[in-house]
Amino acid sequence: MASSLASPSPTSSFIRNKKDLGVSAFPSTSQIAIQKCKKQASKKIVSVMAPQQSERKPATTGSVKTGMTTTEKILAKASEKPRLSPGDNVWVNVDILMTHDVCGPGSIGIFKKEFGQNAKVWDSEKIVIIPDHYIFTSDERANRNVDILRDFCTEQNIKYFYDIKDLSNFKANPDYKGVCHVALAQEGHCRPGEVLLGTDSHTCTAGAFGQFATGIGNTDAGFVLGTGKLLLKVC
Questions:
Q1: What is the mean pLDDT of the chain?
Q2: Quick one: which of 4, 8, 147, 216 has the most CB atoms within 10 Å?
Q3: Where is the Aconitase/3-isopropylmalate dehydratase large subunit alpha/beta/alpha domain positioned along the sequence (predicted)?
């Protein structure tokens, strides 16, 4: 009897140890399953995530230096800089500014407000104005927009104004060239190595001709009309 009291059974020892350690030391089957699912899920997420891309920075040390992209070369030439790098802010000389009957009147209004009612554009032969959005309508407001372009082109002696006057007979409109982005290319305004800005989000399609082309807003266009320059950031 004495020996049995001195040697407790394995069962009683297990119960005592469990109480001493606490229930948390013996996780349930459901807790183990949840932990396994979390580990498997985290592995799958990591496996499908694309590697983080670091910002491109030019090499400045060693015998090999990072070359400029095509855009950087074009903007370096247009800003009269020997070299450009991501993050640079530069004043760029514009080769062509295009606007149409949607944004043209607003751009002209800003130009006149900031530079004066009698101000002259920086270069009348580097501005291309193409009415192509509001021409197929009898709406008075739409017609007013086109009339503003006509008056401005006459006032500023704009060489490249592709107007349309007779909607009933397209053959009677030798100056009309169609959609602005098509006309820019077909009339020779898209040239490799140049900077072309336009008040239309699709202006960037002209980049297919090896030039830097992008859309801008009326405020920027009004500034370009008066100066022929625009401040751009190299990204």
A1: 82
A2: 216
A3: 73-233
